[in-house]
Amino acid sequence: MSQYVIQNTPNIKLKTKLPPGPFTIPILSDLQWLPRSFADLEPFLRNLRSNYGPIITFRIGHNKAIFIASPNLAHQALIQNGAFLADRPPPPETSKVISSNQHNIVSASYDSIWRLLRRNLTNHILHPSKIKSYSPALKWVMEILKKNLRAQSQLGQPVRIIDHFQHAMFCLIVSMCFGEELRENKIREIESVLTTLSLGFTRFNILDFFPKLLGNILFKSLLARTLRAKK
Description:
The chain is mostly helical.
């Protein structure tokens, strides 16, 4: 299913009638989604399709979204009319923390910043000619992985392979981001901050279900923790 959040999107004007969808009451209807994740949304939308057709308007938080549940219509939207739908709406409050206020490639507006990020990604980080430049970093990461696995195995306890591979991949990403081999304690510090932020992100999502002013009043302490996480 393809989704387009349309409220506050510069390229889409709400002058025409929106596709059909279920009746919702602001705030009250949103409460049912607080204990759920977006993974629960797909089966819900599949049920709506039988009643409202392949294009559905549904309110999530204080934004309206259009969901496309047809491969052919999704192709028309994403491929044939891709430029028209390429931009993104302003992010919710919690997404600003993760995306540095839309300053990464998956959340940036379709403008010069996004084109610069894309060019940097395709011409430098992911370009085949640049792969060899990561050879020193790959060797460094392999040594870290072997050292940690060897040390864990000598304790006589079961070895959680996934933890060591995740840490090794994180070391590689850090090296690619900063262009140098950081010390182990610094890598662990960065890893801890990002893990805490990722695990707490779902808890912060409640702020997205209320208008900004009301959310700031009702969840003042949670907003403060969100801002601390951003710093």
